[in-house]
């Protein structure tokens, strides 16, 4: 098989040379590996050039969700199967697909494993893979990305300050294919899957391949309900979060509100148009 191996050298603050060594050791004699290291600049175009050069069978991605998204956007309509080597700070998509955490286990799956089709969401013409949101969580991510504090402690310290400074609640005008209404909340998420990269199961009904996504309106901070998200399958109270299954939605806010896609801060915006892209990507998920 011919593999294009996209490596994000900076994701997750982690050196990837051991992953490269392990991938090379796992390859079969006739396989061919082309390595592409992202630079953070014009990576989409550079990956597209690589893809044109050879007939690849599969794209391997060592990075976080941002790097998977980059690979998917570069492939566009002619998406090849993707093998994920989770190596970001949170790895939301890998966690949602229940990929193993040890390289010894995920490398054989990424290279030769059976694939599964998953949906994605078109969000203002960007690709969303699992959960994107307006409000509190995006504010947390923005603070974290601009702070010099790293790691879990850094995240916790940033979180506490952001919680006290949050400008919410916000009024969200929501128009789905069935109805239009306005609701207040501290955060509004577009969820293609069940959980955040941190493992919090905020959308127990979410399925990544059902042709729909959920609009989740979080009404208030509720520690008891937040603790429930640590367990898969727990119903969450409708006083905490309301869920609307949709194929398409338009969200508007009076003022600009911070927005993030798959754990990466975008900017403050006041309008989002989102539409499900059924079976958009094919990801290797288990041994054949
Ligand atoms: N060589 C590089 N130098 C600086 N930034 C880079 C480089 N390569 C990629 N990037 C940036 O890395 C980001 C993607 O990171 P990614 O989401 O994969 O990892 P992460 O943030 O550590 O993980 P996660 O999304 O799981 O939290 C993109 O914004 C991309 O522009």
UniProtKB/TrEMBL annotation:
GO MF annotation terms: kinase activity
SUPFAM superfamilies: NAD kinase/diacylglycerol kinase-like
Keyword Iron tagged: no
InterPro entries with a match to the protein in the record: ATP-NAD_kinase_N, Diacylglycerol/lipid_kinase, Diacylglycerol_kinase_cat_dom, Lipid_Phosphate_FormReg, NAD/diacylglycerol_kinase_sf, YegS/DAGK_C
Pfam family, one: YegS_C
Keywords per UniProt: ATP-binding, Kinase, Nucleotide-binding, Transferase
Database matches in SMART domains: DAGKc
Domain annotation DAGKc: ranges: 1-127
Source organism superkingdom: Bacteria
PANTHER family from the UniProt entry: SPHINGOSINE KINASE, SPHINGOSINE KINASE RELATED PROTEIN
Name of protein: Diacylglycerol kinase
Species of origin: Mesonia mobilis
């Amino acid at each position: 098989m011919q593999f294009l191996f996209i490596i994000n050298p900076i994701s997750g603050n982690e050196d990837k040379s051991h992953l490269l060594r392990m991938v090379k050791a796992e390859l079969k004699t006739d396989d061919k590996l082309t390595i592409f290291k992202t630079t953070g600049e014009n990576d989409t175009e550079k990956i597209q050039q690589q893809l044109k050069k050879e007939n690849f069978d599969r794209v391997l991605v060592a990075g976080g969700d941002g790097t998977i998204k980059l690979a998917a956007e570069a492939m566009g309509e002619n998406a090849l199967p993707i093998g994920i080597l989770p190596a970001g700070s949170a790895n939301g998509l890998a966690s949602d697909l229940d990929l193993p955490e040890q390289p010894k286990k995920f490398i054989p799956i990424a290279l030769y494993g059976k694939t599964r089709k998953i949906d994605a969401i078109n969000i203002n013409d960007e690709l969303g893979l699992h959960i994107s949101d307006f409000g509190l969580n995006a504010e947390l991510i923005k603070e974290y990305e601009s702070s010099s504090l790293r790691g879990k402690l850094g995240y916790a310290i940033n979180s506490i300050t952001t919680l006290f400074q949050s400008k919410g609640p916000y009024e969200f005008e929501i128009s789905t294919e069935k109805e239009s209404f306005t609701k207040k909340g501290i955060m509004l998420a577009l969820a293609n899957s069940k959980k955040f990269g941190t493992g919090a199961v905020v959308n127990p009904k979410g399925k990544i391949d059902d042709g729909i996504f959920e609009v989740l309106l979080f009404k208030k901070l509720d520690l008891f309900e937040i603790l429930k998200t640590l367990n898969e399958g727990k119903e969450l109270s409708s006083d905490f979060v309301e869920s609307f299954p949709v194929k398409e939605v338009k969200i508007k806010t009076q003022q600009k509100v911070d927005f993030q896609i798959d754990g990466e801060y975008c900017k403050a915006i006041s309008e989002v148009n989102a539409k499900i892209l059924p079976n958009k990507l094919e990801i290797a998920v288990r041994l054949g």
